[in-house]
Specification:
This protein is of the alpha/beta class. Helix content is 43%, strand content 27%. Strand 3 and strand 4 form a beta hairpin.
Amino acid sequence: MKKPMLLVMTLCFIFMLAACGSSEKTTSTGGKATNQDSGSLAAIKKKGVMDIGIEGAYPPFNYFDKSNKLIGFDVDIANEITKRMGVKPNYIATPWDTIIGGLQSKKYDIIISSMAITEERKQKVDFTDPYYHTGAQLFVNEDYSEIKDPKKDINGKKIGVAIGTTFEKKATELGATIVNYKSDLLTFQDLANKRVVGVITDKAVGSRMIKEKGFKVKAVGDMLYRDAAGITLNKHEEALKAEINKHLKDMMEDGTYEEISKKWFGEDIR
C-alpha cells in the first residue's frame, strides 16, 4: 500500500508544478511579467483615476497659482493624457527629494514632474518616451560680472541648486561649492539676497522666474547641457508605459502638444 500511495502523491506534486509553470506569463521581450505589468493599468481604468506625483514648485512646468490651483505645462500634459485614457487625474504634491521614493512605495501610479531621464535614475525607475527637451542654465545677479564662462568660472563659487536634481550633479562636476534648496524659488530668493553668487536650473524655469517674480537676475553663457524629460513609472509597468506613450505620440501628431507647449513657452519644446 505504501508504494502506490507514494506514487500518487508524487504524480500530484508533479501536476501542481506543471500547473504553476504554465500560468507564468512572459513579456513581449521574453522576460517574466509581474502582476503589476498589466494589473496597474487595469486597476487605474477600473477605479477611473490615475494618481500622479508632482512637485508643484517648478514654474512654469508645475506650480500653485495665487488661488492655490495646480497649473503648468506638466499639468496640462497630464490632464490631456488622462482624458485620452478615460480617467481623471489625482495630483499628489510631493517634495522633490522624496518623489521617487513615493512612487516606489505606491503612493501614486506615475510621476509627471519634469524629471530628467538619467542612467542613475533608470536603475530605480522606468521612463516613457521623452515628452520634452530642455537644458541647464546658470543665472546670476545683474550686477555680478565675475563669471563669464560657467563651465570654467564657477569652480569654488557658491552656487544654489534644488536638491536631488541633475543641476546639482553638474555644479559638483564643475567644482562649485553647492548650496542645496528645496525649490527653485528658494534658490532665486537667496541669489537676490546675495547668499549665493549663482543658481543653476532649467533655462525656461529661470526665465519664467525672472519675469513673474521680478528678480534682477540674468542668464550667463550657453546652456551647460541638454536634458530629455520623461514621465516616470515603476519598473515592469510595460502596459501602462505603452498606453502613455501612445497618447503622447498622438498628441504630438494631432497638434495638441504644440498648442500646450506654445501656451507656456511660446514655442514647441518637444
